[in-house]
């Protein structure tokens, strides 16, 4: 039986089946994105931290806006070409639409990549510093402050990748692996680093286990760590645990039977406190377990762990997989090779909360006494230049009946940072034709890829671990704004990819449908075009609220 209204529209609605379906689908999409936009507004209004304003590069977002608008136009032209039975023009316009989707996702990929390589750090006094981390020097390599490491001086992980200077350095004398939870990649990294440091990781004591009752397996003290050894110990441990569990279950079942016989008529809950496994009766059949495996590190060696992978103490540490370390915590500073932004807005907010009102003098004092300025001469000089420029800007705006923004007063962006690093205090001067702080001129390439660190001048900084309150790349973990940014733009990107795949299918696989029933293909392209217009419309809302506001 043929399904009606696939090509010809219904007389009462004037719509064919797929057009009704796409409108119903788009209605659900409106509710989805409407919920996102509403949540964004409420979260921004109620944020307990300074909401990032105009932090995203405008040019890539603006280009993407026009790219999507152009693609919405070309998809209409593609549909019109089908209606006029002009297959060649349809191919051209649809190809342009698909190419526009590639351009959009390419620019979005560049933007994401920049965020994933840009580091942010909040100190314990709520000052924020941003920039790019340096690399961890190899053990025994010492460099002067700000000195560029050579490739052969940079520490590498077990996969040969450079290690950023944001690691916990722990000098380890003993490592105990959780038998069933150890992470193989971390074991490999420990073995590789020990070999590089000419250290050995050996079994700390003799282990006598069994793979089945009466079948002993011995692991001698001094056996070197490797994955096969851990796998063999794990196998024996799991066999013992299964055996012992079975024995305890049988013993408990037997004890329950005895309890019921001795106390007829009583309920189970009345007997439960006195029913226990008879450990003495099954002791001879229990097999030895090894929940943790201890290894000695000779000589004690410094291992490097990412902060999120270890919970460290002065003499002990625990990895996320349960691996326990014994030794001592070494200095583990975060090293910024380039500091391209300072932000004291969060600190200012905390001072205001503490004082109970906006006290400019208290805020200025707190900023001047912050660790970033008190312990770093370069940053203190930059802030002094910022204050001079702020005074000029305040005077200039006062003549216009205006005042500086919070961003003007408490944040130094990368363009201002580069300007101050290349300008003496006496020469700091705002541009009287602009209502803004002085800035270095930005190159077109930097709009897309961020500041050019090879030609720009930025200060260097090492932050002791005890000053780090929270650190992250510009990822969802950094704050609510970036969590929303990646969620909404990521979901929108998936819609772009899905829509582009459907339109590409019509372009490359629609010829047979066109030859059989061109009107059917035209209807499908129209439905795909409606979805594409919706994708464009969502971006028209996303662009201003994320990039401009």
TrEMBL record:
The chain crosses the membrane at residues 20-42, 62-80, 92-110, 482-508, 529-548. Keywords: Membrane, Transmembrane, Transmembrane helix. Residues 1-549 form the Heme-copper oxidase subunit III family profile domain. It is a multi-pass membrane protein. It holds the Pfam family COX3. The keyword Transmembrane applies. CDD domains: Heme_Cu_Oxidase_III_like. It comes from the Bacteria. It is found in: Membrane. PANTHER family: CYTOCHROME C OXIDASE SUBUNIT III (PTHR11403), NITRIC OXIDE REDUCTASE SUBUNIT E (PTHR11403:SF6). Belongs to the cytochrome c oxidase subunit 3 family. This is Cytochrome c oxidase subunit 3. It comes from Luteolibacter arcticus. The lineage of its organism: Bacteria, Pseudomonadati, Verrucomicrobiota, Verrucomicrobiia, Verrucomicrobiales.
């Amino acid at each position: 039986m043929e399904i009606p209204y696939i090509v010809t529209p219904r007389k009462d609605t004037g719509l064919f089946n797929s057009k009704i379906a796409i409108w119903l689908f788009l209605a659900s999409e409106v509710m989805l994105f409407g919920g996102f936009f509403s949540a964004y507004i409420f979260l921004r209004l109620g944020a307990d931290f300074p909401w990032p304003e105009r932090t995203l590069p405008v040019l890539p977002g603006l280009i993407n806006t026009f790219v999507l608008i152009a693609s919405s136009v070309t998809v209409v032209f593609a549909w019109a070409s089908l209606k006029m039975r002009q297959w060649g023009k349809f191919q051209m316009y649809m190809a342009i639409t698909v190419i526009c989707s590639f351009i959009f996702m390419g620019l979005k990929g560049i933007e994401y990549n920049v965020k994933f390589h840009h580091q942010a750090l909040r100190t314990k006094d709520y000052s924020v510093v941003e920039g790019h981390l340096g690399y961890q020097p190899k053990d025994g390599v010492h460099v002067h402050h700000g000195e560029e490491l050579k490739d052969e001086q940079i520490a590498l992980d077990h996969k040969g990748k450079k290690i950023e200077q944001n690691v916990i350095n722990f000098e380890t004398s003993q490592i105990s692996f959780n038998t069933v939870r150890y992470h193989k990649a971390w074991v490999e990294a420990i073995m590789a680093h020990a070999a590089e440091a000419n250290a050995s990781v050996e079994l700390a004591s003799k282990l006598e286990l069994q793979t089945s009752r009466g079948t002993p397996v011995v692991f001698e003290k001094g056996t070197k760590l490797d994955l096969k050894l851990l796998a063999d110990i794990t196998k024996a441990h799991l066999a013992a645990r299964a055996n012992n569990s079975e024995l305890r279950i049988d013993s408990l079942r037997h004890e329950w039977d005895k309890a019921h016989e001795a106390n007829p008529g009583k309920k189970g809950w009345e007997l439960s406190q006195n029913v226990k496994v008879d450990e003495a009766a099954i002791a001879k059949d229990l097999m030895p377990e090894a929940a943790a495996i201890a290894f000695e590190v000779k000589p004690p060696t410094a291992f490097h762990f990412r902060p999120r992978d270890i919970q460290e103490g002065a003499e002990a540490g625990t990895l996320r997989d349960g691996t326990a370390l014994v030794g001592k915590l070494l200095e583990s500073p975060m090293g910024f090779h380039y500091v391209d932004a300072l932000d004291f807005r969060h600190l200012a907010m905390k001072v205001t909360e503490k004082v109970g009102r906006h006290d400019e003098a208290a805020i200025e004092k707190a900023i001047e006494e912050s660790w970033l300025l008190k312990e770093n001469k370069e940053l203190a000089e930059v802030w002094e230049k910022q204050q001079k420029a702020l005074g000029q800007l305040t005077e200039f705006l006062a003549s216009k009946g205006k005042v500086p923004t919070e961003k003007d007063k408490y944040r130094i962006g990368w363009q201002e940072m580069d300007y101050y690093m290349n300008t003496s205090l006496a020469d700091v001067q705002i541009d009287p034709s602009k209502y803004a702080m002085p800035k270095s001129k930005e190159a077109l390439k930097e709009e897309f890829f961020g500041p050019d660190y090879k030609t720009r001048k930025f200060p260097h900084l090492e932050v002791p671990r005890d000053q780090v309150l929270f650190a992250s790349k510009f990822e969802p973990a950094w704050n609510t704004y970036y969590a929303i940014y990646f969620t909404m733009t990521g979901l929108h990107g998936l819609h772009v990819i899905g829509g582009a795949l459907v339109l590409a299918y019509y372009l490359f696989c629609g010829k047979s449908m066109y030859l059989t029933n061109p009107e059917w293909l035209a209807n499908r392209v129209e439905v795909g075009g409606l979805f594409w217009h919706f994708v464009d419309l969502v971006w028209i809302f996303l662009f201003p609220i994320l990039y401009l506001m």
